Structures are given as C-alpha cells and as structure tokens.
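ARCHIVE RECORD
Type: protein–small molecule complex
Small molecule: S-adenosylmethionine
Source of inputs: curated submission
Record status: active
Notes field left blank by submitter.
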Amino acid sequence: MAKILRHTPVLLQTAIKYLNVKPNQLYIDATVGGGGHAELILQKGGRVLGIDCDPEAIEITQKRLAQACPDSPFFQKGEPNEQGRVPPKKQWQLIKGNFADLENIVKQAGVGQADGILFDLGTTAHQLISKRRGFSFRSNAPLDMRMDPDLNVTAADLIAALSENELYQIFTKFSQEQLARPIARAIVSARKIKPIKTCQELAAIIEKVYQKRGRIHPATKVFQALRIAVNDELNNLKKALPQALRLLKKGGMLVAISFHEGEDRIVKNFLKKNSQAGKLEIITKNIIRPDEEEIIINPRARSACLRAGQKI
Ligand SMILES: C[S@@+](CC[C@H](N)C(=O)[O-])C[C@H]1O[C@@H](n2cnc3c(N)ncnc32)[C@H](O)[C@@H]1O
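STRUCTURE (tokenized, with ligand):
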C-alpha cells in the first residue's frame, strides 16, 4: 500500500495547551489541513468541527480521524430538535468551506458556541508536494496555487494578466520582495515571448533576476505573494477573526498560528483592538515561536508564530 505523507503540525502541543482542551468541549479547527491538531484535540476528549477550503484536505483528514476516532467514545445526546428528536452529538465532523464564512458554516454544522477556535494558517505539506497544485517552485506543475479548486483565478492567470506595476505591488505588499520591480519587469518581457505556464518556468525567470543564491530559494517570496493573492488570504483572515470571537463562549480561547508578517499583523491588531474594547484578554504577551528542536525536525516551522486570546 502506498505510504501517505502526513503534514507535520507546527506548534502542536503549544496550540493545544493554549486552546485549553477539555473533554466534551467543542473546538473549531478552522484550518483542519492534514488533521494533526484535530486528532490531538480528539485524543484529549474534545469535540471537533474541522473546516478547510481544500476538498483534498477534508478527504485526507476524514480518513485519519475515522481511524483515530472511529466512533465517539464520548458519544452524547444533543438537544431536541424542532421535531422533538434528539440528534446524536458527534465527536467530530468536517466541512469543506472558507473560514471567511465561519458563522454560516457553524450554523450549517448545527454545533453552537465553541470553547476554542484554532487558525493554523498557510499551506499543508500535501498541497506543497502535490505534482498538480502548483504551490512549489520546484514542481513542474501548472501555476495554479488555488487551495480551493472552485476559485476562478489561478496564479498563471495573474501572471498573464496583471501589469508590471500590479505584479510589483503584489510582490512588495504580500512578501516584501526586495527585487519586486526587476522581477515584475522580467515576467512582463518573458510573457511577450511565450506564456508562463508552469512553476519551474516562473522560478527560472526569478532565478535569472537574482543571479546569486542565498539561504532561501530566490523564488520563495514571489510564490508566497502569488499564493496569498490567488487565495485572498489576508482578507479571509480579516473577515474570519470577528466571527470567531462572536462564536466563542465566554472564557473560550482564540489561537492563531501565522507564517508571515502580513498574517501576524492582522492577528496582533485584532487581539489588541478587542482587548482594548474589553472583549478579550491577550494570553500571549509575547509571540510564541517553535524551539530549535522543532525547527530542526520541521524546517517549515521556522517562520511560525502563535498568538492567543481569551474571550471575556
Ligand atoms: C497549515 S495547514 C493546517 C494544518 C493542520 N493544522 C494540521 O495539523 O494538519 C492550513 C490549512 O488551511 C487551509 N486554509 C487556508 N485558508 C483557508 C480558508 N480561508 N478557509 C478554510 N481553510 C483554509 C489550507 O487549505 C490548509 O489545508
């Protein structure tokens, strides 16, 4: 049987500690991904509503959780519904959706207020290593980068259609790429000769602009910026956080793991604003980062930072 690669969850124990997981309480994993955080919540006896906009993530996690928690050892009866029937309260359920629609998704799931909500932002290993999805500058896949295949615009569409200035704006705004201008210019001249369709074609154009290679691959930042633009990542997060706060019970925990400055700034400002408004207490006075050992085992963890707040 083919071995299925598992996404290594970042700050796993730390996130679960800040979520304050207790048996039978409800946790919303708004980015369920490969199911690592969700599985640990279940092992600690919590109930999980897992959400992901990527149907492949839902499929992988469905299998993982079905093995880890085939039927609820903490099975309980729910509240009577309108017909007077008492539906079972499930230990876990997964829904494909965008966390920008968090309140609607939670309504659809019929689970009510949550004791903790987790956002573990960014991509999974499954998305990065996929030969089809186009997230990695190392792959020869079409430049796609949609986490949700129902989205209309791919990275190739942006590369083909945006002006030099618009590309420059995306590369600077979303990933502070220092060579944004010459890279944008190189893309515009390359596409006049031949459309840029694959990850490797784009990576080769960026490598030529850089000439010298540093510690990280020269295409890293441009790929990150395109991914953020294709998936509208920052706007989705801005829409989701206020909904998450409304969905939490008093005392419930909001935990967010970010992987770049743009995301972290949104989380930080949200916590600060709502703490000043007396709606939550910031629990992480300083950002929490993975230790050296975790970064050695999982290099993807190097840019992670966690913040948490408790609803008042
Ligand atoms: C870093 S992974 C989560 C990994 C997960 N915590 C685990 O332990 O396996 C991030 C996931 O969030 C999903 N995602 C990103 N933006 C999303 C959004 N706006 N709505 C729903 N899911 C999103 C991605 O598809 C990806 O699967």
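CURATOR ANNOTATION: The chain has a mean pLDDT of 92.
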